[in-house]
Amino acid sequence: MSSLMIETSEDIPIEQTSVTQGAPLVPDSDASDTDSAIGESVAGSFYSASLASSVLNYTYENGRRYHAYREGNYLLPNDEKEQERLDMMHHICRMAIGGAIFRAPLHESLRVQRVLDMGCGTGLWTITFADDWPEAVVIGTDLSPIQPSWVPPNCKFYVDDIEREWTYPPAERFDYIHGRALLGSISDWRKLFSNAFNNLNPGGILEIQERPTDVQSDDGGKIHVPHMADWLDKLNDGLSAIGKPSRIIHLLKGYMEEAGFLDVREEIYKLPIGPWAKGRRNKELGLFFLAHCANSAEPYTLALFTRVLGYSAEEVHAILERVKIELRNPRAHLYIPLYFVWGRKPG
């Protein structure tokens, strides 16, 4: 695991604003005026597969819209509100690593001609990569056809379930496979990594970008957020009940090695929740991530708690109101680690 230092002054560039999990962020003891100023300043899809009406026959429940293809395999919504949240997370991940969209060494002796983005969501990462690598064919797959209509000519989207058997012929293997924010939607990570391994060309790279479904604190390991802790325990229990365990992020590196990947690397960055850490860029990142976390509470919870755990929608919203109050507590020094794990297929 590499160590990157977090900024402790206003002059350190954005490339150094994220750190490995062991190094604490520095709380800002005098944050009110600066935070207010920062808060004011921060505050195309081509479908190769035909879209049958069943794919677009969305489910509506408790005011949110959910995917139709293989209904129930993914319990987060796919409506415009959710799409905005996904796009915000894309920008947060870029902020955390200095504007990049990946950490794997793609520029080192690897000719990238075919790329797969698993679970591409709105397709923003897919499109960005296609713009940056015009010589590569970039394919995004997702359960929902929610990607935009206008995209680079080298970008294609398919409605597909990455947990099913992959059917790409040998001539269409990939040089780089990417996945982000898949925790809680994958039943068998070993199988997923094996499928990726078998569908990479020799020397190809698999990269996973993930955040755990738990929060952590730089306050001596103590997290003074009992409502949030209880909510997260229930959230993870619900995901385990449907066969999609989420507290396994620390195992991904080992799973990748078991699948046969070499030179497996893991980097961990900290995403502060709120503007409590020193440094303007940390504050901007924290403000964006606080908004994202507040907006994530409902989509991660509503269907899971009502369909699986037996809560009413009213009970869910009452739980989330208490959670959001704790999220905004600057004294809790909360953060969520952002993992980048990648490995290379031999050859």
Can you describe this structure in just a few lines?
The chain is of the alpha/beta class.
Description:
With 347 residues, the chain is of the alpha/beta class. It has one domain (14-344): Rossmann fold. 34% of the residues lie in helices and 18% in strands. The chain has helices at 32-42, 53-56, 80-96, 124-132, 189-198, 226-241, 252-258, 280-308, 313-327; strands at residues 59-61, 64-66, 114-118, 137-142, 155-159, 174-180, 200-210, 216-217, 262-272, 334-344. Strands 3, 4, 5, 6, 7, 8, 9 and 10 form an 8-stranded mixed β-sheet that branches. Helix 6 (226-241) crosses helix 9 (313-327). Pfam families: Methyltransf_23 (PF13489).
Task: Chart the SSEs and their pairings.
Elements: H1 32-42, H2 53-56, E1 59-61, E2 64-66, H3 80-96, E3 114-118, H4 124-132, E4 137-142, E5 155-159, E6 174-180, H5 189-198, E7 200-210, E8 216-217, H6 226-241, H7 252-258, E9 262-272, H8 280-308, H9 313-327, E10 334-344
Parallel strand pairs: 3-4, 3-6, 4-5, 6-7
Antiparallel strand pairs: 1-2, 7-10, 8-10, 9-10
